[in-house]
Amino acid sequence: MDRYLSGTQLARLLAIDPAARPYYRVLARTVRSxxxxxxxxxxxxxxxxxxxxxxLGVSRTTVTSAYDLLREQGYLESRQGxxxxxxxxxxxxxxxxxxxxxxxxxxxxxxxxAAPSAIxxxxxxxxxxxxxxxxxxxxxxxxxxxxxxxxxxxxxRYTARGVATRPEQILVTTGAQQxxxxxxxxxxxxxxxxxxxxxxxxxxxxxxxxxxxRIVPVGVPDEGWRDLDLLTCAMRQSAARLAYVIPDFQxxxxxxxxxxxxxxxxxxxxxxxxxxxxDESWGxxxxxxxxxxxxxxxxxxxxxxxxxxxxxxxxxxxxxxxxIRTTAATVRHLAMLRxxxxxxxxxxxxxxxxxxxxxxxxxxxxxxRLLGASRDVxxxxxxxxxxxxxxxxxxxxxxxxxxxxGPTATALADAAACQGVRLAPGRxxxxxGTLEGRLRLPFTHPPQVxxxxxxRIAEARIRGAYGTRPAEPLTPAL
Length: 478
Known about the structure:
Blueprint: H1 7-14, H2 23-36, H3 49-56, H4 60-73, E1 76-79, E2 83-86, E3 109-111, H5 122-136, H6 148-160, E4 170-173, H7 175-187, E5 193-198, H8 202-210, E6 214-219, H9 229-238, E7 242-245, H10 259-272, E8 275-279, E9 305-310, E10 322-325, H11 328-338, H12 347-356, H13 360-385, E11 399-403, H14 409-418, E12 421-425, E13 438-442, H15 447-463
Parallel strand pairs: 3-12, 5-6, 5-7, 7-8, 8-9
Antiparallel strand pairs: 1-2, 4-10, 9-10, 11-13, 12-13
């Protein structure tokens, strides 16, 4: 580390109003902002506390307090005899004042969203993709089915998980959401019955309505899909052409379907002529050690299982890359269908994700460590502050599905918003306003954020709603 700033240089860069109060917090916040927007590079040595205090015209105690706060937040590292230097924090060390946690700039803690922060290997993958990018400029710059390296990486991952797959069976999409849109546009006509788990991913409910489908909800048992009688009976009685299921750490319940149930589900779909759209967005996010499950597509014998995957949960939500695994013929059909939408997914992001697949096991280990710590903290805080609430601790995924003792989830969300927390009430995940006694609480946020959020939720239960409740976000839940 050979870069450093003098006290005078940093004071000029900070440009803080001398009347700002409390000064040490303003100082820490300004330094943090400079680091985040790149104006103050990472690994630059900061001036000694005494020198910065002299340059700013404040006491050394003020600068010491600011440095302590920056160290606590992970934006400053220090070593005896070596001084202090700027840093970027590990996601798990960010507190409740993390500048990236605000939703729609309203300042509320966003517990309505289950979206993990970026994996630590992402910067290296971006740098590697930047090095590869120029040679792709020799071509036309897009491929409707996705670039070959990424399709090969996705196919290899499915093969390693127990379902032999060729690159020709993979279509790269602009996120899992587009993948689901394309499949439903291909297979669903207005008035067709579409089977949905209840609760389920909220955007699929909206999509089914937009397509004019007749929604057939099937309640997910509290213990998960151990008995498929409800599901298979609904298939038979509704003659559903399409069924959307989340067998891997189901969103929002966190349930994991075992191989016996997966085989039975695939057999039922074959028997009743139903195509299964299987969302595996959370499939790589196991936390607890346990037997590995097989992708549901491994039990498919006639091309009736279409699998959806995504880069957003394992690596980062900003990577808008998803994929579809199906037959090669269906991939060609879907590629022609998507031409009316966007022709192809962004090349650079495809290169990034292709690189990330090379270290997928390391990413899974890191994600399991971070999510596991947050999950356990959230569960402990809920047990301590809301012992009358009940839930099953999931073995993976990103959220806890809570059964409330009262009031309704919508009323609690109103009250919590007044305490600075945005919640996802159960009705978002149900059909026709059901599931008001439920609440999804994600553990994709750092432990400190969850501790503070649960404290505010407990306060909201006591105080109730008051004042003006912020508007709900345009995209309610992930």
